Every structure is written in C-alpha cells, then in structure tokens.
From TrEMBL:
The gene is STARD6. This is StAR related lipid transfer domain containing 6. It comes from Loxodonta africana (African elephant). SMART domains: START. It comes from the Eukaryota. Keywords: Lipid transport, Lipid-binding, Transport.
Length: 226
C-alpha cells in the first residue's frame, strides 16, 4: 500500500472540502461553533464541517490536535490515541479507540488512520486522516472497526490576530455495525461541538507549559514502533 500517495491525496481532498462552499446545510450552532453537513460522496452517510475560532496560534493548535501527549488529555471522545508507525517525518499511522456516545447507543469503535501534516502558504496547516489497512493492528473482537473516509483539520491564523486560529474540522465517519443512520445523524452534531469545546479547554492546560512547535521532531519521540 502506497501510504505516502494516499496521504497526499487525502490532504488535497480535505483542502478541497475547505474550499467548497456549495450544498452545506447548517444543522447546529452553539457557543459560536457551527456544524454543517451534506451527503458524502464516499459512502452512504454525511460529511460534517465544524467551524470555530480558537484562542491559540496555529502552531500550538496543531500540536494539540495530533500529539498523543496532548490529545488524550483533552479529547473526551477518545479512550486511547497512539501513533503506532512512522512513515516519514509528517506521515504516520494512528490507532484510536473512541468512547461510547449518544447516551451509550453508539458503542466504542476503533480506527486505524493514516495521518498526514501538510503546511501551506499563509501558515495554514492541514492535519488529514484516512482509514487504512495496517497489518500490525488487524480488527479485533473487542471493538467494531470503524472507517474514516477523508477527514481532517484545517488550521489557519485569523488575519487581524494571529494569536487566534480559525479551525475547520471535517468528519465523514462510517461507524459500521448495525446502527440506524438516524441515530448517527441525531447524535453527531452535538458530539462534534463537544470536541471543539474540549479542545478549547485543552488549550488552557497547554498554556501552562512551553510545549513544542508543530514540526517533524515534535512527534518522533511519541511513536510506538510495531
């Protein structure tokens, strides 16, 4: 499997979602966070777009979103998040286990995702992810193996105040199992808003440490080789 080619393609797709202004329908707004959706072209479900302003610079926000030492401290939707294989300095395989949500009607899933960090002009950073097969982590009987079609974060500085960032999150997750689509559609918007609110809480904790900038050396020591 050509992981590098998949990673590049996924980043381009996420960039395309960010530039796409047609067909989105606002499904929920709360605390200055907006969730929009439309039918996914990848599977029989929706792609969600979540937008908000985060009181943190792009580089600091970037590390908060993908470094395991930070991610597991704030992201209450996850039981576990580990980098399990490094492909190159900006491309790696992650294993994530989610919490149940929607009052337990959606049970925990696990995901094997190819994550890629790509920098663009204007200090824009895309953290893209796409589920892949990885021999080191085959599906187990402990969790239903979900599948993330091209997803990711687009982090951009707010022009008038670079200490703030615009965060766009794109999610098109195939939960699999025997879930009714209506259950997913009813639960997903609130769950996605919670992720952004939890990230803001995580920033408060991060500010008490010096942290590390979002560049290749930032994540190398956290990789677990399998």
């Amino acid at each position: 499997m050509d992981y590098k080619a998949i990673a590049q393609q996924t980043a381009q797709e996420v960039l395309g979602y960010s530039q796409d202004t047609t067909g989105w329908k606002v499904v929920k707004t709360s605390k200055k966070i907006t969730v929009s959706s439309k039918a996914s072209k990848k599977f029989n479900g929706n792609i969600y777009r979540v937008e908000g302003i985060i009181p943190q610079s792009t580089s600091k926000l970037c590390e908060l979103l993908y470094l395991p030492e930070h991610r597991v401290t704030w992201d209450k939707s996850l039981k576990a998040f580990n980098m399990v294989h490094r492909i190159d300095s900006d491309t790696f395989i992650c294993h994530a286990i989610t919490q149940s949500f929607a009052m337990g009607s959606i049970s925990p899933r696990d995901f094997i995702d190819l994550v890629h960090i790509k920098h663009y002009e204007g200090n824009r950073v895309i953290i893209s992810s796409n589920s892949v097969d990885f021999p080191g982590y085959p599906p187990s009987s402990n969790y239903i193996r979900g599948y993330n079609h091209p997803c990711g974060y687009v982090c951009s500085p707010v022009g008038e105040n670079p200490a703030y960032s615009k965060l766009e999150m794109f999610v098109q997750t195939e939960m699999r199992g025997k879930l009714s689509p209506s259950i997913i559609e009813a639960a997903m918007p609130s769950n996605l808003i919670s992720v952004i609110l939890n990230a803001k809480d995580g920033i408060k904790a991060l500010r008490s440490t010096s942290g590390c900038a979002c560049h290749p050396k930032s994540h190398s020591s956290f990789l677990k080789k399998k």
